[in-house]
Amino acid sequence: MTLRVAMAQLDMLVGDIKNNTESVIKAAHEARDHHQADVVVFPELTLTGYPPEDLLLRPSLDSRIEDSIQTILNEVHDIYVVVGYPRRIDGDLFNCAGVFHQGRMLGEYAKQKLPNFKVFDDKRYFEEGTEPLIVDVKNVKVGLSICEDIWHPEPSLQAQEAGAELIINLSASPFHIEKMGVREQLLHQRAVETQLPIVFVNYMGAQDELVYEGGSFVVNAQGQKIAQAPWFESGIYTVDFSVEETRTQKVIPLASTVAPALSIEESVYQAMVLGLRDYIEKNRFKGIVLGLSGGIDSALSLAVAVDAIGADRVQAVMMPYTYTSSMSLEDAEEEATLLGVNYSVLPIEPMVTAFMETLAPEFEGYAKDTTEENLQARTRGVTLMAISNKKGYMVLTTGNKSEMAVGYATLYGDMVGGYSVLKDVFKTLVFKLCRYRNTLGYVIPERVITRPPSAELAPDQIDEDSLPSYDELDEILHLYIERDMSAEAILEIGQFDRETVYRVLRLVDLNEYKRRQAPTGVRLTERGFGRDRRYPITNGWHIGD
């Protein structure tokens, strides 16, 4: 006998329970009618979308979920449906997976391991389940688990001891660099421990700063990957299991399509595109407007914007001032031309002059400093926001993680905007991503990649006048932000200057207030600025030890 399992990795809208339910019904019918599947599996919390956060506290959640479940039971037949949702049982809310067939709920599993770290807040909302669930699906004993359960041995071993012959894991595992390989190692370990095949069905889509890349896959009882759905694509992907009727029933996955692995640059770039596209479309913005400086960060941001929603919905604005070089003007125009976007040149000198004249009495007796530089950036921010208000376009900010970390950005200036695709991208990775994007089609001029980065807010200014080299800076930032190493621990590595390390770490801590006011952006590393890292603005912590 053959059991065909359909893995449905779909892009849901958080909170839109009614339309999410309709998507489940449509996908179940497609899995049954076009893929001839026996069972269709949806990811964790599919009915609410993921993560629903404090929507789980809304009083009407319970009735909406009950209506959703009943609708699926009424409208889907002749296929087993495994789907995730929140459900209140005896007064407590659980993260559940239900198995539906022929108008009946055959069983319901409650997630046992509740992550409460980094971007996860499960214990804020849910109670822990304690019991396994084994459901008979075409004479195969199927055990369920949900996301974090698979990261621990106990739930899978519990299912095995209860008689499971196949484990299905409903997941909403967010993307970060190299996460794909970590998951494969994890499922290999669980399969070897239980000697059972495992189906891992992952969420696909983006929600605010989090990106879910899909990539659902299957391992056999020896932990070998035998099926792999594409990354960053919605769809229904099937895998067949051979079920041998012997004294001990044995379920063996048959070899299937394995999507090719992605490089770091390819996976990061696709995550940026997906994150931006879903943010624009789900929040119903008409398009994107961004400041195009002729520099590398805005060039990469523009390319991502075009790849996300199309050139016809993107406007680039060059806002030159006295210190803007002719090279920047030329490069910005070339970038806009190569990508085919609407391009405007709006000089800001008249506006900056008006500000300076108005402020002259207040500035009398004070020497020039970064105040005058910040006025340029803030004038550009006002200009972009005016275009945004008038046209309904969202302002895309262009600052990278290196700059955001040390505060090399102007609050209410170049930090103005609704979203940032570079928020979790160190400058050294920006260069690599530009090289990668040009392999898909030349859109970022070579000179933009090779010239020394500059904010061009003062004569002959380059970034490394104010900062260490980006190679050195990014390594220190990685150790401090993503690995939580102290200044002295970083110095013990033996490759950095003491003064530089203490200066960089102090800048990171001092600029927490800026990052709190920065727009959200795609999370790409294990420790982005956002839900991952929650440090107090006001604190007296000493960075040395």
UniProtKB/TrEMBL annotation:
GO cellular component terms, semicolon-separated: cytoplasm
Entry-linked SUPFAM superfamilies: Adenine nucleotide alpha hydrolases-like (SSF52402), Carbon-nitrogen hydrolase (SSF56317)
Keyword vocabulary terms for this entry: ATP-binding, Ligase, NAD, Nucleotide-binding
GO BP term, pick one: NAD+ biosynthetic process
Entry-linked CDD domains: GAT_Gln-NAD-synth (cd07570), NAD_synthase (cd00553)
Binding site residues for L-glutamine: S173, K179
EC class name: ligase
Catalysed reaction equations from the record: deamido-NAD(+) + L-glutamine + ATP + H2O = L-glutamate + AMP + diphosphate + NAD(+) + H(+)
InterPro entries: C-N_Hydrolase, C-N_Hydrolase_sf, Gln-dep_NAD_synthase, NAD/GMP_synthase, NAD_synthase, Rossmann-like_a/b/a_fold
Reported function: Catalyzes the ATP-dependent amidation of deamido-NAD to form NAD. Uses L-glutamine as a nitrogen source.
Name of the protein this chain belongs to: Glutamine-dependent NAD(+) synthetase
Organism ancestry: Bacteria, Pseudomonadati, Pseudomonadota, Gammaproteobacteria, Oceanospirillales
